[in-house]
Amino acid sequence: xxxxxxxxxxxxxxxxxxxxxxxxxxxxxxxxxxxxxxxxxxxxxxxxxxxxxxxxxxxxxxxxxxxxxxxxxxxxxxxxxxxxxxxxxxxxxxxxxxxxxxxxxxxxxxxxxxxxxxxxxxxxxxxxxxxxxxxxxxxxxxxxxxxxxxxxxxxxxxxxxxxxxxxxxxxxxxxxxxxxxxxxxxxxxxxxxxxxxxxxxxxxxxxxxxxxxxxxxxxxxxxxxxxxxxxxxxxxxxxxxxxxxxxxxxxxxxxxxxxxxxxxxxxxxxxxxxx
Length: 275
Known about the structure:
two-stranded antiparallel sheet, D-Maltodextrin-Binding Protein, domain 2, 2 domains, 8 helices, 12 strands, ten-stranded mixed sheet
C-alpha cells in the first residue's frame, strides 16, 4: 500500500511538472511559438482589425512584431461570445491587441491608450459648440445610440430616448456593421447626430464627404472613457511583462498610429491629449 501510494504521488508530481511546461500555462516557455507574434483578431471589425491588415490594431501588431524581430500571424474569429475561448484560450494565438482594462475573460497588460465616447454630427447641424449630452440644444434631435452603452443611460436621463434611434451592440461583424450604418445615417441626414465609441467615431467621420465633426464627451456625469490594454492568458506572466515593456518603450509610436485613425486620446487626468 505504501509503495502504491508513493507511486501515485510520483505520478501526480510528474503530471504537474508536465503541465507546468505546457505552452500557455505559466512556464518560462509560455508561448506555443515564441518566435512568432501570434495575434487573435476579428476579421471584419474596422477600424480595429480586418483580414486585409487595415485596422489600427493590425498596425500595432506589426509595430510590436517588428520591435521583437518576429513575423506576425493571425487567428481570425468574429468578436462575439466565444471569441476568447476559441482563440486565446485555445492556444491558437497569444495576444488580443485591444481589450478594456478590467476585462474578466483575460489578463490585461498596462493600458496603452485611453479614449471616450464621442458625439458625431454634420458641420451644418448647429451642434458644433455642444460639449455634453446634457446640452439643451439636443432636445428634439434624432440621435443615434448603440443600445446598452453608457451614452444610452445619459440619453434616458435627459429625456432624449423618445426620438433616439437605437443600433445593435453585439453583431456578427461578417454580415453587419451597425456603427458604420449610424455614421452613414448622420451623413445623409437620416438622423441629426450619433454617439459612438471614440475610435469608431473618429475613423468613420473622417471618411465621409464632407467630413463629419467629432466632439469627445469628457464632461458627462456618467463615465464615458475607458483605458484599453492588450489581453493575454492569465498564466502568461512573462509574456505580459514583455508586452508592458514594449508599450512603455513605444508609446509615442503607438499614439501616432492611433491619431492617424482619428482616435481621440485622453491623458491620465481625462483631458484630451494634444499631438
